[in-house]
């Protein structure tokens, strides 16, 4: 229960002023520019775009600056901004097969067509802090390797040729995928709506859940079938033009997780898949999302639901960090009346609790109960 | 068939205009010295489009998340209408792109604009893509099998 | 097919401010059922869509609200192109799939129960009907009571279906399900939310 109280305006005003002061920090240090954040803290920007569910590098950079680097606060700012904009419509589904690839690896096949392309990865770095970065030393450009472009095929196509992996369901142009922004959540959710939730879900939460599936909570024997990062074209349907208008490119990370499946009455033993698709470059999250997606398909695949990652309501209701922040942090709002009631209750319970001790034979009374 | 070819050219032009650097576009545009009178039909206005993916990459569509876009539509004095939409929130670039789209309804003007504005920018964008492709190619793993020793 | 230029003109000149003003007027009218609110129509859609109905469409419709048009409106390519361009709306093929419905000829409209009625859990998932009428003051008077109405309120719309009173009584019985109406005539608008009860029947 909340009670309206007045007061504190001056305190709030001064707190905001103090926030601005602390955000700026030592005035002898140059202020950060949004270009610096977008260029040099690019993966932080990606995370804010992904969890803010809004692809706009500059807005995400601004949010990070305003939130003093608190990425969940920045996500909150982006989500709030998003609600002020009208929605013009829907883009055509992106074709990740036609991606301009910056990185692509598979843990299933060494020599798959297109090869293992490491890209700008942290893998194989020694995780030793580099003192040279404490400065602005000249950095050379990436090396080039000439040669004809080789088509980069998908893992599903390779396994699919032998029928060893489940196929994607044929797209039905009539079915509109649900949108979690527009409709209240009713469980069970379609896989399309789950993927939308997971894609904007909290990276840490998905990572922990994905990890738990590997440790035995919903075992699914995952292999990283393919991870690819790169840019895809976006086209938006335009009724006035009668064709889909290209509006530019976005960077995405896609993960195809390949999982063993022992088969069921309906399907022979084969590999099943979990899918992850994320704004920007975020391999960790794309992989975690794919693990969660696969675990959430338990019911569809006739598996026993025994662990939290398989429980739609548990995963989807708790993966959004803006929602989670709101509910956890609301505890700091005044609960004065609630607490007074609780205080009265605890006092009366204590009084009751103390009473039997005054009697001569407390043990017998307890035994009788 | 002719209409299809016309749409393909127009789409390609729109793609270059959407991806190009706003400053570079303005620079090339200014060199043409064109400044047609126009009426705004809509925008420039910023809003959202919902981006979509496909389950598993090729399956059913799902909503991935939104992106900011800015659009504009203009009409020139001769009645030709131009539209533009691009990711981001640059209203001036959207208006200029719509004017260019409208001018290009005239085939002669289109040839001039394509040669002087679109083609140079497309070449620059393609070159940047090629550099990225080659940089990525340089990180390709060349496996070689070690000779197995026999104990 | 590319729409003709004239079909694309006549949207709000100041989309944010004009949509806000129109929204405010519709909200006020919805809060005081059967009370007439006047606004200067500021959209100029192609006929037979009226300026006021066009302004309301620009304010309420978007890509996520499918609209159903009565035959007189849907028969006009210009109206469809104009609505699509300025609101981004999609066209519903059946009345019960529509979030909004627009009528040039309300007298011949399908029965109210053919539109989306919402569900007990989500009564908001219903159709809002926007009617272009000849007048709100020169037709047979209808008196309403209910939330937002002090004692009673009377309007006299001309051009409603002959059995409107019976249909509205049915609509009231479906509460909390049911449809809401926005009545327009010239620059006047009045609303009949499903909570407005018809007090007496006029011949």
TrEMBL record, chain A:
Source organism: Kumtagia ephedrae
InterPro entries the record matches: PhnI (IPR008773)
Protein name: Carbon-phosphorus lyase complex subunit PhnI
GO MF annotation list: lyase activity
A biological-process GO annotation: organic phosphonate metabolic process
Highest taxon, organism lineage: Bacteria
Record's keyword terms, sorted: Lyase
Keyword Lyase: yes
Pfam families cross-referenced by the UniProt entry: PhnI
Automatic annotation (TrEMBL), chain B:
Highest taxon in the source lineage: Bacteria
UniProt keyword list: Lyase
Pfam families named in the record: PhnG
One GO MF term attached to the UniProt entry: lyase activity
InterPro entries recorded: Phosphonate_metab_PhnG
A GO BP entry: organic phosphonate metabolic process
Record-annotated membrane-spanning stretches: none
Name of this chain's protein: Phosphonate C-P lyase system protein PhnG
Organism this protein belongs to: Kumtagia ephedrae
Lineage: Bacteria, Pseudomonadati, Pseudomonadota, Alphaproteobacteria, Hyphomicrobiales
UniProtKB/TrEMBL annotation, chain C:
Highest rank taxon of the organism: Bacteria
GO molecular function, one term: lyase activity
Keyword Lyase: yes
Keywords on record: Lyase
Cited Pfam families: PhnH
Gene3D superfamilies recorded: Bacterial phosphonate metabolism protein PhnH
Keyword Transit peptide set for record: no
GO biological processes: organic phosphonate metabolic process
Alphabetized InterPro entries for the sequence: PhnH-like_sp (IPR038058), Phosphonate_metab_PhnH (IPR008772)
Name this protein carries in UniProt: Phosphonate C-P lyase system protein PhnH
């Amino acid at each position: 229960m909340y009670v309206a109280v007045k007061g504190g305006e001056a305190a709030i005003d001064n707190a905001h002023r103090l926030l601005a002061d602390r955000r700026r920090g030592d005035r002898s240090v140059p202020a950060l520019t949004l270009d610096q954040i977008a260029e040099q803290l690019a993966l932080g920007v990606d995370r804010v775009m992904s969890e803010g569910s809004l692809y706009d590098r500059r807005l995400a950079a601004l949010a990070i600056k305003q939130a003093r680097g608190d990425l969940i606060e920045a996500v909150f700012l982006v989500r709030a901004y998003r609600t002020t904009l009208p929605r013009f419509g829907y883009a055509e589904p992106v074709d990740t097969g036609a991606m301009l690839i910056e990185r692509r690896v598979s843990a299933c096949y060494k020599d798959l067509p297109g090869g293992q392309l490491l890209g700008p990865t942290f893998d194989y770095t020694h995780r030793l802090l580099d003192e040279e970065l404490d400065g602005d030393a000249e950095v050379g450009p990436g090396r080039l390797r000439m040669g004809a472009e080789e088509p980069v095929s998908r893992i599903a196509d390779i396994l699919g040729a032998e029928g060893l992996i489940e196929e994607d369901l044929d797209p039905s142009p009539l079915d509109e995928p649900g949108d979690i922004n527009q409709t209240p959540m009713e469980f069970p959710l379609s896989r399309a709506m789950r993927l939308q939730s997971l894609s904007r879900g909290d990276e840490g939460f998905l990572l922990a859940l994905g990890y738990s599936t590997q440790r035995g909570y919903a075992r699914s024997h995952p292999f990283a079938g393919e991870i690819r990062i790169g840019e895809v074209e976006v086209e938006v349907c335009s009724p006035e033009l009668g064709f889909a208008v290209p509006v530019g490119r976005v960077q995405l990370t896609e993960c195809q997780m390949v999982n063993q499946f022992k088969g069921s009455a309906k399907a022979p033993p084969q590999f099943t898949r979990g899918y992850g698709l994320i704004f920007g470059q975020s391999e960790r999250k794309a992989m975690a999302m794919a693990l969660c997606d696969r675990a959430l398909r338990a019911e569809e695949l006739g598996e026993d639901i025994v662990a939290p990652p398989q429980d739609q309501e548990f995963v989807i209701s708790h993966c959004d960090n803006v929602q989670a922040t709101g509910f956890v942090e609301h505890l700091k709002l005044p609960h004065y009346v609630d607490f007074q009631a609780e205080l009265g209750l605890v006092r009366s319970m204590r009084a009751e609790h103390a009473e039997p001790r005054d009697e001569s034979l407390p043990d017998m009374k307890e035994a009788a109960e | 068939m002719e209409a299809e070819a016309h749409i393909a050219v127009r789409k390609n032009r729109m793609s270059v205009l959407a991806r190009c650097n706003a400053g570079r576009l303005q620079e090339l545009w200014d060199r043409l010295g064109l400044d047609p009178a126009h009426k705004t039909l809509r925008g420039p206005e910023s809003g959202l489009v919902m981006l979509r993916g496909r389950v598993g990459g090729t399956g059913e569509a799902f909503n991935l998340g939104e992106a900011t876009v800015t659009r504009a539509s203009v009409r020139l004095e001769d009645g030709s209408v131009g539209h533009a939409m691009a990711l981001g929130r640059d209203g001036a670039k959207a208006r200029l792109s719509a004017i260019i789209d409208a001018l290009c309804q005239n085939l002669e003007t289109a040839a001039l604009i394509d040669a002087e504005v679109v083609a140079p920018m497309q070449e620059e964008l393609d070159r940047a893509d090629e550099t990225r492709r080659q940089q990525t190619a340089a990180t390709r793993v060349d496996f070689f099998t070690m000779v197995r020793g026999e104990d | 097919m590319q729409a003709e230029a004239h079909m694309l003109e006549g949207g709000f000149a100041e989309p944010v401010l004009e949509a806000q003003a129109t929204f405010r007027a519709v909200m006020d009218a919805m809060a005081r059922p059967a009370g007439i609110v006047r606004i200067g129509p500021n959209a100029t859609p192609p006929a037979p869509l009226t300026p006021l109905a066009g302004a309301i469409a620009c304010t309420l419709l978007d890509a996520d609200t499918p609209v159903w048009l009565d035959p007189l409106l849907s028969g006009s390519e210009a109206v469809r192109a104009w609505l699509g361009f300025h609101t981004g709306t999609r066209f519903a093929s059946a009345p019960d799939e529509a979030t909004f419905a627009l009528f040039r000829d309300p007298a011949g409209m399908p029965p109210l129960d053919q539109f989306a009625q919402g569900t007990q859990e989500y009564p908001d998932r219903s159709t809002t009907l926007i009617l272009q009428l000849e007048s709100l003051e020169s037709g047979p008077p209808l008196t309403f009571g209910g939330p937002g109405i002090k004692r009673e309120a009377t309007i006299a719309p001309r051009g409603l279906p002959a059995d409107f009173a019976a249909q509205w009584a049915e609509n009231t019985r479906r509460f909390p399900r049911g449809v809401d109406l926005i009545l327009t005539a010239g620059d006047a608008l009045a609303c009949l939310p499903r909570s407005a009860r018809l007090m007496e029947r006029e011949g």
